[in-house]
Known about the structure:
The structure holds two protein chains of two kinds.
Chain A: H1 3-22, H2 29-56, H3 63-80, H4 87-117, E1 125-128, E2 134-137, E3 147-150, E4 160-164, E5 167-170, H5 172-175, E6 181-183, E7 188-189, E8 194-195, E9 200-204, H6 212-223, H7 229-262, H8 269-281, H9 286-305, E10 308-310, H10 313-320, E11 322-328, E12 334-345, H11 350-360, H12 367-375, E13 385-391, E14 395-400, E15 403-408, H13 410-416, E16 430-436, E17 439-450, H14 454-463, E18 468-472, H15 477-487, E19 491-493, H16 498-511, E20 518-523, H17 529-534, E21 537-540, H18 547-552, E22 555-557, H19 563-598, H20 604-623
Helix pairs in contact in A: 1-2, 1-4, 2-3, 2-4, 3-4, 3-8, 4-9, 4-20, 7-8, 7-9, 8-19, 8-20, 9-19, 9-20, 10-19, 11-12, 14-19, 19-20
Chain B: E1 2-9, H1 12-24, E2 28-34, E3 39-44, H2 50-64, E4 68-71
Antiparallel strand pairs in B: 1-3, 1-4, 2-3
Helix pairs in contact in B: 1-2
Amino acid sequence: MEPKQKKNLARILIAAALTAALHFVPVTGAPRFALYMIPYLTVGYDVLRKAFEGIKNRQPLDECLLMAVATIGAIALALYQKSGDYAEAVAVMLFYQIGEWFQSYAVGKSRRSISELMDIAPDYANLEGEDGRPVRVDPDEVEVGTVILVQPGEKVPIDGVVVSGASSLDTAALTGESAPRDVAEGDEAVSGCINLTGVLRVRTTKEFGESTVSKVLELIEDASARKSHSENFISKFARVYTPAVVGSALALALLPPLGLLLAGRAPGWGTWLYRALTFLVISCPCALVISIPLSFFAGLGGASRQGVLIKGSNYLETLSEVKTVVFDKTGTLTKGVFEVTAIHPEHMDERQLLHLAAHVERYSTHPIASSLRAAYPDEADGCSVEDVEEVAGCGITARVNGSAAAVGNERLMERVGARVRACELHRDGTILHVAVNGEYEGHIVISDVVKPHSAQAIAALRGCGVTRTVMLTGDRQAVAARVAGELGVDEAHGELLPQDKVARVERLLDGRSSERERLAFVGDGINDAPVLSRADVGIAMGAMGSDAAIEAADVVLMDDDPLKLATAVRISRKCLRIVKENIWFAIGIKLACLALGALGLAGMWLAIFADVGVMVLAVLNAIRCMYLR
Amino acid sequence: MKKSYKIDVDCAACADKMEVAANRTPGVREASVSFMALKMKVEFEDGADPDAVMREVLANCKRVESDCEIFL
C-alpha cells in the first residue's frame, strides 16, 4: 500500500467508526449537527477542496463537485426538514471514498503484478574484467561486438552469439514455454532469457535499446495507448453520461414540483430535491471508465505471460472477432526445414542407402545435402569419398570406397545408365535417386514436415469460433493439398508468389459477408510483411530474436508453436467477453438505480451502495483477464 | 515527433479529461493517455517546441483535474 492509500484507509475507518458510534448517541439539534460534521469532514475534506477548485476552474461536472453538491444538499435538506438524518450524507461520502480507495488499490495492485510479469528488463551487464572477474556495467553502455559474461541465474541482457560456454536458457518470460532451450558456442542468445546452468560468454550483436528485451518491453508499454473500440465507446459514453445525469437531476428537481403546482397540488419540493440529489450520487461514470481499460490492460499482460504479444487493445479486440485464419505454409504450419521422410532401397538396407547418399553429398551446401547429413549425423566416418563432382541441375557423383556412386534426379540416373523404378507413393517432396556402378539402388524422399502441433492448432482454432481456415503457399498445389488434408485446413492455394498472396487475402476480405468477420493472417513475419499489414490482424510466429517480425506484425507469437495461435484467440475472446459483461453490467445497474431513484424507490444509501458495489465487482471481473489461459 | 511522458493521476475518468485537455492544446497533433500504464504519448505538430507545448499541456490538464501531474 502506498502512503496515500494508507492515509485514506485510516480516514475511512475513523469516519466509519465515528458514524457508527454516533448512531447510539442521543443528541439532537445543533450538537448533533456538529458531531456528524466530524466524520463528514474527516472523510470528505479533500472532495470539498477539489469541488471548490472545480468551481474555480469552471469545471461544473467535476465528480468531486457533484459529490459535494449531493452531500451538502442532503445535509441542508436534513437541516431544513429538521429530521436530523445527517448519517446519509456521511455515508454517501464514506462509500464514495471506499470506492475510490478500492479502485486505487486494485489498479495499483494490477499495475504492479503486470510489471512483475514483465520483469524481464535486465539491470546490468557483466563485462570481463582484467582478472577474469565480472564487472557490472549499465547495459545501455555496452557497444555492439563486446563480449559479455552471463552467469547462471542472470538474465541475458543484450542479444548476441555465444562465443564460449554451454548452458540452458529459460525462455519462459518471453515465450511462456517452460522447457529450457540449450545453447552452445555459435548459438544465438536472446536477451530476456535466464541463464540456468553454465557461464556463457556472449558477443553482443545489437545495442541494448535494439535488443529483443527492450523491443518487447517497449511494445507492451505502448500497447495500452492503442485503444479499442470498447474503450473509445466508454470514454465517449462517460463524456455524455455525466452531463446527461446532471441535466436530468436538474429536471427532476424542477419539473415534477412545477407540474404538481400547476395541477394545483402540493409541489413536494423536498422530496424531488432529494431524488435529484440521489441522481448526482450516481453521476460518476467511474466503474465503467476504470474497468474497461483495466480489462484490456490485464488481458494484454496475461497474454504476454503466455508468449503472445499483442501490440494494442484494438488488436486484442480484432483478434476476438476473427472468423477466417489464413496461414502461410512454410515455417508456420510446417517446419520449413527439409527432412528425410522416406527411404526406399532396392538391395541394401535403409541405413546403408542413407549412409551412401550422405557421403556423396558430404561437401555440398545445398539444403538437401544438409538434411541428408542431419538424417545421418555420423557421416564423418572412415569411408573414403573422392572425385566428388556436381552435375549441374542433376545431382552429384562421387567415388565412395572405390565404387562410383550417383545421387540425384532421374536425369542423373539416365546419365549413369541406371533404370529408375518409379515410385507411386510420393508425388510431392523431392526424390533423390541413388545408383552405384550404374545400378539403381533406390531413392530417398525429402520433404518439408508439418509441425507436431499444427493439426491440433487448427482443431483448437475451430473450437474457439474460427469458421474458415485457408493455407497459402508458394509450394506446388499437390503439396499444398496434401498438407491441408493432413491438417484439416479447409482450403489450400499453392504456387503463389508473394504478390499473389496479397491478392488472395484481398479477395477473401472482399468476399466476406460482414466487416465484423475478421481475417487474420499468420506468417513467419520475414517475407510476408505486405500480407501481414493487409489482413485485419497480422500475426507473426517464432518472432523471438527477429525484430523484423516484431515490427511487421500486430500480434507476435514469441515461439513458433502454432498452438499459441489458438491460445491468443481464446484469450482475446474471453477478455472481450469480460469487457462486454462489465459494460452491460455497469450501465445496466446505473440505469436501474437512476430509474429507482427517480421513482423514489431507492434512496441515497442504496444509490451509493450500488454504485460502489458495481465498481468493485467490475474491477474484480476485469482483473480476471490477467489470469486467462 | 512523438514523445512519451510519465504521468500521475488518481482516477480513470480524470485521465480521460487529461487526454481531452492535451488534445485541445495548440501544437499537439494527437495525445493519448493510458491510465493503466500512467503514460501520456504526445505527437507534436511539425515545428512545435515540445517543451513549451508540454508546459501548456500541463497547465491545461491542471485546469480540468487539479490533482494530476506530468513529469516533464
